[in-house]
Amino acid sequence: MNELFPLKQVMGFVVSLVLTVVALLVYFLDMTFARGIAILLITAFLQAGLQLVVFMHAGETEDKGAIYTNIYYGLIIALVTIFGTLLCMIWGYE
Amino acid sequence: MDYFDRFAVPHPSFGIYASMVAIALTVIGIIVGITYYKKWGYLWREWLTTVDHKRIGIMYLISALLMLFRGGVDAILMRAQLAVPENTLLDAQHYNEIFTTHGIVMIIFMAMPFIMAFMNVVVPLQIGARDVAFPRLNALSFWLFFMGAMLLNISFVIGGSPDAGWSSYFPLASNEFSESVGTNYYMFALQISGLGTLMTGINFITTILKMRAPGMTLMKMPMFTWSALVTNIIIVFAFPVLTVALLMGSMDRLFATNFFTTSNGGMDMLWANLFWVWGHPEVYILVLPAFGIYSEVISTFARRNLYGYKSMVASMVIISLLSFLVWTHHFFTMGQGALTNSIFSITTMAIAVPTGIKIFNWLFTLWRGKIVFTVPMLYSLGFIPIFTIGGVTGVMLGLSAADYQYHNTMFLVAHFHLVIIPGVVFAMLAGLTYYWPKMFGFMLNERIGKWAFWFISISTCVAFFPMFLSGLDGQARRMYTYSEATGFGFWNMVSFIGAMGLAVGFALIVYNVYYSARYASREIGSDPWDARSLEWATHNPVPAYNFAIVPHVASTEAFWDSKKKGHVLFPGDYAKIHMPNNSGVPFVMSSIFFVWGFSFVFGMWIPVILTTIGIFACMAHRSWEEDHGHYLSVEEIERTEEQLRGA
Predict the structure, then answer these.
(1) Are strands B577-579 and B630-632 parallel, antiparallel or unpaired?
(2) What is the rounded CA–CA span in Å between residue B192 and residue B190?
(3) Domains defined for chain B, CATH in brackets
(4) A35-65: per-residue pLDDT in tens?
(5) pTM of this structure
(6) Is B202 on the interface with A (CB under 8 A)?
(7) CA atoms of B454 and B446, how far apart (whole Å)
(8) Which of A58, B109, B536, B610 lies in disulfide reach of B149, CB 3.0 to 4.6 Å?
(9) pLDDT by residue (tens digit) across B604-638?
C-alpha cells in the first residue's frame, strides 16, 4: 500500500492549496501594504518551487543538473535586474 | 482620401521620392526577372520552404550583407552632412531619421543576422549533427527576423522613419514628441524580429546540449560552438526584457497607457533602464560569437591548438553573467547617486578582466605559431590593436565621475564604433572569407581581399580617431550641424574621408565576390585552409544530411587528429538517415506577421484582428499536423557520397 499511495503528490497538493489560501487572506483581511506584498511574494515563490519540483518533476530525470542550473541562472538574473532597477530608479536616485 | 493620408511621408524630400521610385523599380525588376527565368518554383522549393540549416544560414548572410549596405549608405550620408560646418545636405529631421535607422539597421538587422548566419552554417557541422534540434522553428526564426527587417525598411517611404535614436528614449519617443508613426515601426519591427531571435536562442541551446556527436563532451566542443552556446543563453535571458519593454512602449503609443509618461505615475527613465538591461547583454550577444570566430581563425592560421581552452570557456561564462550586471553605465548622468554609479563602475571594470584573458590567450596562441597571413587572419590580427583602443576608451567612459565629461559626445561615438567594427564587423568579414568555400564551394580572391582589409582597417582609424578629439572638444553626438567657430570642421572632414575609404573597402569586397564567382577554381577539396574542426571533415558542397556517418570525437580537434594522428573519425557503415520535411508555413506565418505589424503601426484594427486570427491558425495547423519527416535510403546516401567524392 505504501508503495502505491502517491503520498508526495497528495502532500504537495495539500500544501499548494494551503499556500493559495494564505495568499487569498491578503485580499480578505485588512493588512498594511508592506505586509501584504511580503506574504504574496513568499507564498508565490514557495508555490512556484513546489510546482516545479513536485508536479513538473524538475529533479527526477538525468538532465536534472541542466534544469536546476537554468532555474538558478534565471533567478539570479531576475533578482539582479529587479534590485538593480530599484537601486537606480528609487533607492539611489537623488 | 483622408484615410490614405496617413501613409504619406510627413517630411518628404527629393531623396525620398527617388528612393520610392528605386524601390518600385527594384521590386518590378525582381518579379519580372524571376518570372522570365521561370525561377518561382525553384525559389519556393529550394529557399522559401527550406528547413536546412545551411540554406537558412546563407539567407541570413545575404540579408545581413544587404542591410550592411543600407546602414552604410546612411553612415555616408551622415558623414557627408557633417563634413563641413553649416551644411544643408540634410535637414535636422532627416538627420535624426538617418542616425536612428543607421543604429537599428546595423545592430539588429546587420550584426545579428550575420552572427546567426555563422551559427546556422557552422554549429551543426562543428558538433557533427545532421541539423539543428528544431529545423522548422529555425526557418520560422529566419523569416520572422526577415519580415521585421523589411517592416523597418519600408518605414522611410511609407509613413516616416523612427527618429528618436536607436535607443528610442522616452519621453522623446512618446506620441507627444514623436508624432509620426516612425516609433511605432521601431516597436513592431524589433518585436517581430526579436521573437525570431528568442526562438533561435532556444533552438541552439537545445541543439548544442542534445545533439553533439558521440564522444564530444562539453569541454571538447570547438570554441565557436562554445561561444554560440553562451551567446544563446544570454539571448534567452536578455530578450524577454526587450519584448516586455517594447510591449509597454507600444501600449503607451497606441493605447494611451502610462508606463513611460512623465505624468499619471509613469516613469520615463524606466524605458532607458529596461532598454539597457537588454542592451548591454546584447553587446555580448554580438561580440562573443565574433570572439568564437577569431578563436577558430587564429588557431587555424597559427597552425597551433588554441592556447588556454579552459580559461577561454571560463571567461565566456563569466562574461555572460557579468554582462547582466553593468547596464547602468549607459546612463550614469541620469541622476543616480554616487554610490549607485560606483557599483556599476566597478562591475564594468570587472568585465574587462575576462575579456583581457581572452586577448592574452589569442596572443599566446600566436606565440611560436607558424603564422599564415591569409585574409581571415589579417582581420583577426587587425582586430587586436584596434579593439584594444576601443576597449581602453570604454574603461575611460566606465569611470562614472569622468563620464560626465564624455557623456553624449562624439568621444562615445568613437569608442563604440572602435569596439563594434573590429570586434564584430572584422570578425564577420573574417568569418565570411573563412567559411565562404564551405558555403559556396569556391574561395574568395586573396589579393583583392587583402586590399579590402587594408582599406577597411586604415579607414576605420581615419574615420573614428578624429571623433575622440572633437568629442573631447565638446562636439555632441546626434547634432545635425555646427558652426564654423566651433573648430570641429577639420576633424569632421577627416572623418568623412575615412568614411569614403570604408565605402571603397566594402565595394572591393563586392567586387571580390563577383571576381571570384567568375574566375576562382572550384577544385578546392573539402579542407582548403588545412583547418582543425569537424565542419571541414565533410564534403564540399555539404550534402543535405551533413555527415553520411556520425563522426566520433575524442578531443577538441577531432578533424586535426584524424588528419595527423590516425584518429578514426567515421567508424561503421551507412544507415538510413531521418530528415525533416520542408514547409511553407514559417514563410506564410511570418508574412502574416508582417501585415500584422504594419496594421498595428497605423492602428488599423480590422486587419490587426484578421492577421492575429491568421497567426493563430498557422500555429493550430502546426499543432495538428502529422509530419514525421522522411528517410534517405542507404542506396541514396551511397550514390550521393560517390558523386561528392568524385568531384
Answers:
(1) antiparallel
(2) 6
(3) 1-286 (1.20.210.10)
(4) 999 999 999 999 998 998 888 888 788 888 8
(5) 0.93
(6) no
(7) 12
(8) B109
(9) 999 999 999 999 999 999 999 988 889 999 998 98
